Structures are given as structure tokens and as C-alpha cells.
Amino acid sequence: MANANVKLTISRFIAIMMLVIPGVLATAGFLYMKDAIYQYIVDKGNPALTDISFGWLPFLGGLFLFAIGVGFIGGWIFFRDRKHNYVAPRFREKKPRGPRPDFRQQATRSQHNSGDNPSAEANTK
Length: 125
Prior knowledge:
The radius of gyration is 32 Å and the shape is elongated. The chain has one domain. By secondary structure, it is mainly alpha-helical. It has helices at 2-45, 56-83, 103-114, 118-124. Helix 1 runs antiparallel to helix 2 (56-83). Keywords: Membrane, Transmembrane, Transmembrane helix. It comes from Paenibacillus agilis.
């Protein structure tokens, strides 16, 4: 019994870490982007500096980390909600349709059964 509890605890810890790590990546990416923008604004306001450049490498690296983290967490939430049927109808899984019926056979059956046949009406009057 203790072995089952240990396995359950380890599996839950791994599941939590699978969500914490992308969250930390997204947070770090956001901070890198914020720092790059803030440093550019600070340098622009300093009259002693003449050659001011934007830190593209930290900004794009932060954008990449942010996109990876948010994309992973967003995808996890989306597929969890899809499994519990919480999503809008256009995002639900498409169910395979059955074979298409033969409309020619249905048309001949409906003409005989619906009373649209004028010869049948003439015989009843």
C-alpha cells in the first residue's frame, strides 16, 4: 500500500512540475522583455549617452520564452477543457460521420409513402 502512495505522490509532483516549469519560463521571458524596454527608456533619458541602442537579443529571447511558456499552459488548459466539454462548439472534436445515405432510394420511398402520388389519390376518391 505504501508503494502505491509513493507512486501517486511522485506522479502528482511530476504533473505539478510540468505546469510550474513553463510558468517560470513565461515569467522569466516577460521579465527579460520588460528589462530590455526599461533599459532603453532609461538610456534614452540619460543626456550623457549619445549612442543609444535597443537590446534586441534579450527582448527577442524573452519573447521566445514567454511564447513557449504561455503556449504550453494555454494548450494544456484548452485540451483539459475540451476533454470536459467546456469549450465552444467550434472547438469540440469532430465526430466521424456515418456513411451517406443513398438519396435516390430515399426519394422513391418517400414518394410511395407520403401520398404525393396523384394516381393513388385518384383511386381513393
